[in-house]
Amino acid sequence: MTMLPRLLPSRVPAVILDPIVRVLIALRITPNVITVVGFLGAVAAAALIATGELRSAGSAGPRAGALDLLDGALARATGRAGPVGALLDSTLDRASEAAVLFGVLLYQLDRGNNEEAALVFVALAGSFLVSYVRTRAGELGSEVAEGLATRPERVLVLGVGLLTGWVRVALWILAIATALTAIQRLVLAIGALRRAQSTEGGD
């Protein structure tokens, strides 16, 4: 299957990630702890956004999101990768994104910014569809993991918007990019499933 382009690499270089993982192992920190701490960081960022502390949230949010890169690497390094950790990780990833966007929603509603509030809804719906298409397609036998606006890209875009004050621009980018990514994944998954079905029928 042809991969979709990504704005960011899918993996952090080992030269950067491995030393951090070794420190975490030495401190006996488990992957699930990293996952939960990342979620709590996202909740803290959401609270900062809701109270108008956009720049503080803009720096805190990406740091919390970066922990998502560590829990999987730590799980693989310690042999703890498994379905329970994967379920917790994917669930709290969605909850973290929803929490941050909820903070943005409260901030916009408090200021009467209806356009921005609507964009938050579109961005949230789009991000959930991006994840849903991947999960459902995988269940049906078509793995579609790439895309223009996967979670790291979405965290980066919103973080930059918060830091620069260009939140409206960031929300427009998120709304459009998540919708396009969901559609791209759906089209690719349908194509792959049809090819697989044709192959089975030919046999």
What does this structure look like?
This protein is mainly α. Helices cover 80% and strands 0% of the residues. It contains 7 helices and no strands. It has helices at 14-26, 31-50, 54-78, 83-110, 114-139, 151-164, 167-202. It is flat, with a radius of gyration of 18 Å.
Q: What's the arrangement of secondary structure elements?
A:
Layout: H1 14-26, H2 31-50, H3 54-78, H4 83-110, H5 114-139, H6 151-164, H7 167-202
Q: What would you say about this model in short?
A:
With 203 residues, this protein is mainly α.
Roughly how much helix do the residues carry, as a percent range? over 70%
Portion in strands? under 5%
Number of helices: 7
Sheet bearing the most strands, described? none
Which residues sit in consecutive blocks of at least 5 with pLDDT less than 50? none
* Count of beta strands: 0
Over the alpha carbons, how many angstroms does the gyration radius reach? Answer: 18 Å
Q: Give average pLDDT, whole number.
A: 86
**What string, H for helix and E for strand, traces the elements in order?**
HHHHHHH
- Assign the structural class, choosing from mainly alpha, mainly beta, alpha/beta, alpha+beta, or little secondary structure: mainly alpha
Distance between the termini: 21 Å
Tell me the overall shape.
flat
Key structural traits:
7 helices, mainly alpha
